From TrEMBL:
Protein name: Curli production assembly protein CsgG
Native organism: Chryseobacterium formosus
Pfam families: CsgG
Upper lineage: Bacteria, Pseudomonadati, Bacteroidota, Flavobacteriia, Flavobacteriales
Keyword Cell wall biogenesis/degradation: no
Segment forming the signal sequence: 1-27
Keyword Iron: no
InterPro entries xrefs: Curli_assmbl/transp-comp_CsgG, OMP/PagP_B-barrel
Record-annotated membrane-spanning stretches: none
Top-level lineage group: Bacteria
Keywords: Cell membrane, Lipoprotein, Membrane, Palmitate, Signal
């Protein structure tokens, strides 16, 4: 017995060491790190690879800041740190520079710029009196033909949370995740007449994950062994904001190409056709996107044929019920995107070991409800009535159940379900005893083929 206990302890220690090694491989280290260049996002590369305009657009950004006023969520009391970085204007200017479409000019701290120019003028007037008067004139400041306005308008915490875990004989592991969401708006304003030329809206999810493992075991009556390992990874808010702003700048450029906002700055329109087509395709796909980056892409039709293999076990007046297999098939008609009428027939056997074995053919009529009909993965519930035909007699019952369906292909769904049959009588087993009617529990796994017009 002690040999197996020793083997289990060694195994747990090796498991904990492996988890620790995984953490080291992911750069979880206590050593000091040197300063590095800032990370780039996928949209940074996309901005830098955009086809260039004929000439850059002079653009000014006075203020593009956090408009939420929200503080970081905290479980241990008040936290006075802001949830969103306060340097979003600087991030936007960097994105404009990376795109190579714009010539940003200083406007956020223009008072400092004007003060410095005034100091230069005063110094020249005082110390360069005998020099050429033309040398005292500073070149004029650039003025913007367009202003960019907007800001971070929303930061939503815990938009989606979840996790999974298991523990067996003191050994356990768990994983958790949380999604936050940041939203920005960016608009282009003409300095000629104040017209708002275009507004774009971008959202970005921020992911936080946690993985933990633990070991808790009494080795002896007075000895307890306990160990834990784990790591947590939080997506940096600054990178999420940068990613969203760069996406907004790219969207603004492409929307401007489509609506001819940039005017003479554009080159040959054919040079930009590919990025416009890709943008339109993304926008079309984004039409059905829901919170959590979930896309409603299901194409369930008005009609479907289904078949499944079932396992069942009877609950009657006899002991030792035996699990048996059966088959079920039928047709469904969707008169609404959520509701359908199902007509089916099944063949199965009910058995009590060494006592009774009966085979039934059972037609059923059910009303079924899909909770998420537009999604590939949808729960469903149903209820109805049916009959049970055998060589001896006919019985009647009601049933209800539920399950899940996943559209593995365009018109083919995989279903898993469970059903509870409630008899209207107590003689499925040809014996009436007690007050409860006979009933049965059934589990099914099958396919659902859709055809006809879409809902």
């Amino acid at each position: 017995m002690r040999f197996f206990l020793t083997i289990r302890i060694i195994f747990c220690m090796l498991l904990l060491y492996a988890l620790q090694s995984c953490g080291t491989a992911m750069s979880f280290t206590s050593n000091k790190e040197v300063s590095t260049m800032g990370e780039i996002t996928t949209h940074t590369t996309e901005l830098r690879n955009l086809p260039l305009p004929k000439e850059k657009v002079v653009i000014g950004v006075y203020k593009f800041r956090d408009q939420t006023g929200q503080y970081k969520p905290s479980e241990n009391g008040a936290n006075w740190s802001t949830a969103v970085p306060q340097g979003t204007t600087t991030i936007l200017i960097k994105a404009l520079e990376d795109s190579r479409w714009f010539k940003p000019i200083e406007r956020e701290n223009i008072a400092n710029l004007l003060n410095e120019r005034q100091i230069i003028r005063s110094t020249r007037q005082e110390y360069l009196k005998d020099a050429d008067k033309n040398s005292q004139n500073l070149p004029p400041l650039l003025y913007a033909g367009m202003l960019l306005e907007g800001g971070v308008i929303s930061y939503d915490s815990n938009v989606m949370t979840g996790g999974i875990g298991a523990r067996y004989f003191g050994i356990g592991a768990s994983s958790q995740y949380r999604q936050d969401r940041i939203t920005i708006y960016l608009r282009a304003v003409s300095t000629l007449n104040g017209e708002i030329l275009k507004t774009v809206y971008v959202s970005k999810t921020i992911l936080s994950t946690s993985v933990n493992g633990s070991f808790f075991k009494y080795i002896d009556t007075e000895r307890l062994m306990e160990a834990e390992v784990g790591f947590t990874q939080n997506e940096p808010i600054q990178l999420a904001v940068t990613d969203a702003i760069e996406k907004a700048v790219k969207s603004l450029i492409i929307e401007g190409i489509k609506d001819n906002i940039w005017g003479k700055s554009l080159g040959n329109p054919a040079d930009y056709q590919k990025i416009v087509d890709d943008y339109d395709l993304e926008a079309q796909k984004n039409t059905n996107r829901q919170i959590g980056n979930i896309y409603a892409t299901a194409e369930r039709s008005k009609f479907s044929l289904f078949g499944q293999v079932e396992g069942n076990q009877v609950r009657n007046d006899y002991v030792n019920p035996v699990a048996q297999f059966g088959l079920k098939g039928g047709v469904k008609y969707f008169f609404d995107k959520n509701f359908n009428v199902e007509l089916s027939a099944s063949a199965y056997r009910l058995e009590n070991q060494g006592i009774l074995r009966r085979t039934f053919i059972s037609p059923e009529l059910n009303l079924e409800y899909f909770l998420l009909p537009k999604y590939k993965f949808s729960p469903f519930i149903y209820a109805g009535v049916g009959g049970m035909f055998s060589t001896e007699d006919v019985k009647y019952k009601s049933q209800f159940g539920g399950g899940f369906e996943y559209l593995a292909f365009k018109n083919l769904g995989v279903r898993i379900s469970s059903q509870y049959d409630i008899g209207f009588s107590d003689d499925w087993d040809l014996l009436k005893n007690g007050k409860r009617n006979d009933h049965a529990l059934r589990f099914g796994l099958g396919l659902n083929l859709y055809f006809g017009n879409k809902n």
